Every structure is written in C-alpha cells, then in structure tokens.
Amino acid sequence: CLSDHRTTLAIPDQVSARRREILSNFGSPSLPYVVFTIRDRRILHDPDDLRNRSVIEFEPAITSLTERGFNVIRLMATTTDPLSSTNERILDWQVRRDGRPGDEIAIMSDAAFVVSTTTGGDSLGLIYQRPVLYVDSARLLLVFLGTELAKFHMPRIEDAVTGNRLTFREVLDRGLARVRETHEFAERGVRVINSSPQEIKQCVDEFADLFLGSTNSAAETHQSQWRETLLLHGGSELAHRHGEIRARMHPASLRDLEEESS
C-alpha cells in the first residue's frame, strides 16, 4: 500500500528548485498549497464525459481554500477555460504555456493535497504520498482504491425513469461500479448528476477540515460498511484490480450511506 511506505522516487535538487521558482508566482510562496487537476470541456474523444467540467464550478472551493490559508494551483497541460481570478493565492498553471516538461512532478510532489475529477494526473500525487480527494467519482474503476491516501466522493445517481436516488447497494447491484465509459450509465437506465459549485465547495471544505485536523467526523468510523457492501455486491473486479480496498469514502457520501441503512 502506498501509504505504508515512503516513496522511493527521489526529488532531485533541480526539481525542488523548479518548484520554488513556480511558487514564487504567489504573493506568499511559503504557504502550503493544494493542486486541482480538472478535466476541462475541450476533450475531443468524448465531449460528454462526466469528468469534463468548467473550472467555474470549482471556483468557490478554490477561493474557500485560500481563505483557510492555502495557496491553490490549478494544474493542466493547456486549457481554453482559464481561471479569471486575480487572487494572489491562486495560480492557473498551464505547463505547455507557462512552464516546461517536468513541472507536474515539481508541483505534485510537495502538494498539501490534490483535488481531482479522476484525470489521471492525480496518480503523481499518490506516488509522492500526497492525499487525493476525488470529486464526483461516478466511475469507481478510475479511483485508486488500494490506498488510504485516496478519498472519494460520489455524485447523485438516480433511476432515469423514477428519478429516485439509487442507494450504494443499488449502484453496485446494477453493475455501475464496473462502468468504464459515460454512455454506459444511460444504457443501464440511470442518470448521473454532478455536484453543484456549492456542493463541491462543501465537499472540499470538509476534506480540508479533516486534513487540518480541525474536525474528527464520526462518519470516519463507518468506513468498513461501504467496503463490505462493495465486496458483497459486485466489487470483486475492483478488488482484483486494486487489491485490498483501503480508500476512504468522503464523509458526505458516508452520511448518505448511513441514511440508506437507517
């Protein structure tokens, strides 16, 4: 498990120096920083992918983190959907425009934590033992479930006919944990509703509180419940893919699970 061992990937002096150079763009470079890695809407192979989001949906969460004492880097190769903020604690870093190859390692390797829409770039954070929050994780196959460093939040998944929200067990019983492509949700008779900007903010705020140790959610004691449900109802493929399931469900999703059981 990644969280059991120190990373064996060395961070050369030139990478650390490059990080300091990038962070010098902040008004207060010494503050801890959070990385957002978000798939934007300019994706040619699947324009309807649920992971493709407008950055404006994440601006309330990003701004809130700066108010909590973090710098924030929105990291991507390039984008046509840049952040418009003038906040000196927010950096929109497009590697192909602003930087050079290897900037992803320089940035990810020392982040306080990473917020991801399962872009793939979050794997760099995990390699360097950075905690990762997956927001609106409809496709569990894309979440690194084999490490406690990963925490995932699920969107609302509802029956396309009745509009009723599916319980976690119903999600599993319909085989939705094995979905690989967005179009498969509609084919299985369900609709996925991503979180609103305010819901994303609340999700990230709660994760930040846990990271800072300012809250100790009682829901954390119920992590074993969803893992057992996963393994009993169609999660064998995920277990085979990831090994022992050690990731944590976000407290907001856990509370939904607890309501289902009550």
Q: Quote the distance from N terminus to C terminus.
A: 33 Å
Helices and strands, in order, run as: HEHEEHHEHEEEHHEHHHEH
**What's the helical proportion of residues?**
25-40%
Average predicted local confidence, pLDDT:
88
Instruction: Determine the strand fraction and express it as a percent band.
Output: 5-15%
Record field, number of beta strands:
9
Number of helices: 11
Cα radius of gyration in angstroms:
18 Å
Shape: globular
Q: Helix/strand-derived class? A: alpha/beta
- With strands numbered from the N-terminus, the spatial order across the biggest sheet is 3-2-1-4-5-6-9
Low-confidence regions: none
Question: For the report, how would you describe the main beta sheet?
Answer: 7 strands, parallel
Structural account:
This protein is of the alpha/beta class. Helices cover 35% and strands 14% of the residues. The strands form two sheets. Strands 3-2-1-4-5-6-9 form a seven-stranded parallel β-sheet. It has a two-stranded antiparallel ribbon with strand order 7-8. α2 links the parallel β1 and β2 (71-76). α2 packs parallel to α8 (197-212). It is globular and about 50 Å long. The model has no long low-confidence stretch (mean pLDDT 88).
